[in-house]
Batch of 3 targets.
Target 1
Amino acid sequence: MNLDIGEKIKELRTKNNLTLNDLSSRTNLSIGYLSQLERGLTSVAIDTLDNIAKALGVTIYYFLSKPKNKKNFILRSYEREVLEVENNRIIQIQLTNDIEGKNLLPRIFEILPSSSDEEITSYPHIGEEFVYVLEGILTLLIDKERYELFPGDSAHYSSNREHNWTNNTNRIVKILTVHTPNLFKK
């Protein structure tokens, strides 16, 4: 996902004849950060991506894969679709048919194992998050503290706190999440 977003940012920036310095001035983000973002070397918080989108004259939806919207409030298990695959390690599965106009964004994430010595970047953004561990052991980072969550454990926190999560085991971790705001709400 980071590389896809970065490529889209670079494509729009060059299409608009903007340098990294120009975009930096418009967004108050460092040139180094923007360069890393364009190369897919760092992640971006939703509010930062929204800031970049406005500076480039598009909406945030330009950078996000929009889920299919069906006006049925029931989604059968066999109808679920993969919303996105991030870095070949995190699979997002859509849990609702009718995503537009809703405040909540429910998803299941399947997180493949990663090395415990990989650096995990925590970031804040607007909204709140609820995480429920279905399978495996999730490492949750909040305000530089690490928490191990086991099946049946949950966490509910304000997204404006520095946070992220990862899988430092050798087994798949599956979590149910509910986020606000719903990025796909119109």
Target 2
Amino acid sequence: MKVVRTVAEGLDSPWGLAPLPGGGLLVSSRDEGTITLVDEKSGKKTELGEVPGVSPAGEGGLLGIAVSPDYASDHMVYAYFTSESDNRVVRMLYDPEKPAGEQLGAPDTILRGIPKGTNHNGGRLAFGPDKMLYATTGERYEGELAQDKKSLGGKILRMTPEGEPAPGNPFDDSPVYSYGHRNVQGLAWDDEQRLWASEFGQDTWDELNHIEPGGNYGWPDVEGKEGEKGYVDPVAQWRVADASPSGIAFAEGSVWMAGLRGERLWRIPLKGTEASADPQAFLTEKYGRLRTVVSAGGDRLWLTTSETDGRGSPESGDDKILELEVK
């Protein structure tokens, strides 16, 4: 693994990163509530606009973003954000022909009522190979929400692009896809279309999980690999000081996992639904806190730093987008 280049610098609290089909990277600013277009060749940044209704505080704000799988025809961009009352998912029309700063249409709320807190707001958004929209939520420090299938907190949700419960979901008329999560911030699919998720532990174990429909991932009853009947054990686990994982991506047969507190990028080689070797750490304490990692196609990844999120030690140029080669 090597860093090929620094794609862009000077980003404020970057959180979500979504490549556009025709080129360009959309980046959300958690604290500013804005979405910026980054030219991945020149590094030029163009602010598209501010998302109305975002109420940043603690770990909340404008979090994950995703581009519609039908973007060529509908030009829709999706966002997950913390409002004054809840976390919600919205979609907006992106019109690049309008003046900079005015290119985002009014947000259409497709899902509301996700519990919010100062911390543990989840926030990752991603479209799966099935063209359904997946969202990760946290339990805002109320562990019992994670086991309550009627609550949207502490879950991975699966919905249609219109925000309805997706066909084939495990629980009737519910967007809940898996439960028993503390705070998931990473989603990725492997080349066999299996879903993987990273999860923050409390004091002991961070996790990488293979996600099964209807699976109970144990929180708050279980943390890490405990072999308890009725709960799904993680595929890999880390001490929280070594990881505190946010985004993940799949490339070259491995899941790549960005660590915040751990300030490193983890590689977890896979064989089927198991790890085929011990996880390997890269970039340890070289770029500070790492937030989001996204496939750039083939053996390339985009990786964002997270030094301006209030918990880092920003240096000149922070925050950055890096291009990695992961052969």
Target 3
Amino acid sequence: MNDMARQDTPALVLDKVTKEYSQWQRSGETKDIIRNLLRPEKRVVTALDQVSLVINSGEFVAYAGANGAGKSTTIKILSGILTPTKGGVTVLGLNPLKDRIPLMHRVGVLFGQRTELWWDHPVITSFQWKKDVWNIPDQVYEKNLQMVTELLDLPDILKTFARELSLGQRMRADIAMLLLHGPELIFLDEPTLGLDVLAKQQMIGFLKKLNKEYGTTVVVTSHDMDDLEEMAQRVVFINKGKIAFDGDFDSLRSVMGGFYRILVTTQPGVPALSLPEMKLLHSENDVHEYEFDRTKVPIHEVLGNLSNYSQILDLEIKKAPIEDVVASLYLSWKEN
């Protein structure tokens, strides 16, 4: 496939995909043993319900949702690991089930920090093993090895045994191994989980650069919404097996209202001010944090109200943390 055809072909398409599981039900009571054997009950669980989704080549998309919402099921279907009960799926124009081998040469998948590194061998040995098993051409391997070594800062760990790596080092090595065959599309499950602040910044910076400079399509899942907001341009939320939201992070905030936070620093000993249309969240050391909905009270009106108080020393306005927005969203879904 030439480069123009690849650009015109969506990275992935889900067309009304449903995935159902059957679960045998057993009470666990001794008195029900015979009934469980002779007349077992079966319950059908719908993990995905008529899911339709298109992600275009070159996008960086966050795929989010609560535990059990259907995220992992979706990725496994796109990877050819699971078969959908109903609906159509294409990835890079291919069928993940029928074309799994050629597709895997164009896709990279990292699930739940499961490593493919050989535990009792140096990192470079695992890389060379993948080159041989995957039949990666010398030129492609050397080019990609040089890229990941430079961008992921690997020189000091290539000759280190995998079992001796820190979590951050191992994640960098796993991502590097994932990219050795030059995938056009990568799926990442919780790539920043457990990383310290510096390692997390390095990982996010690398993924953004990989997407922007190399055009790699990235689909990432995480429970850390701050990380997702920093990485991705688009966020897709799945709830109870259905797409509940698809858009950018500003649009996500507007779903729950235009909530903003304002930090008001007052002179020592001045109590929190009673301000119209503003909710006091907490006060500490003469700094008082309020929340307001700018769709109900414009920022200029908030500032106008605050200008009447001479006890104010400083102000800082910021968007509500995305974690709080998502928590409110989850709560609203749970109540419906």
